[in-house]
Amino acid sequence: MGHLARTIALVGMMGAGKTSIGRRLATRMGVAFRDADHEIEVAAGCTVSDIFERYGESAFRDCERKVIERILQEPPHVLATGGGAFMDADTRMRLKEAALSIWIKAPVDILLTRVQRKDNRPLLRAGNPREVLEKLMALREPFYAQADVAFESEDGPHGDMVDRIIDALTDRGMWSEA
Fold this sequence. Notes:
Radius of gyration: 16 Å
Strand content: 5-15%
Number of domains: 1
Distance between the termini: 6 Å
Largest sheet: 5 strands, parallel
Structural class: alpha/beta
Shape: globular
Number of helices: 8
CATH topology: Rossmann fold
């Protein structure tokens, strides 16, 4: 069993692979995995799409902020945040204080392929998915760029990304196998 110095928070666009990379990373490290969107759904008793539909995006962001704040009080773990979480100034500040933030970058073509597999992305219902993704990326990338570390997500196995993240954490003294 290794030792993780602080929580690892994965940030980035929907479809970047935060959840699947996060799960694999947590398993490899032997620590807990938390998915913010899942935790929000448990807390709210309905889906993210339902929250957006019934109460709007700002109510969702309020809930997201509270849930992430609570999760960050747990022992070090791997946390996958929702695509818009890092845009919120308070959430971003808390993540910077309590975690190492890692931006999983992916080109629009990869994101598009991945998000079109599921119809659970409320922000993509507002028009042409490619155009919506390109607009969101343009808005969000300056915020994602404030993450502590960035990794390019290739369209390869997520295990390769996990290896790269573990190497970076080891080099930074944030993770040790012993």
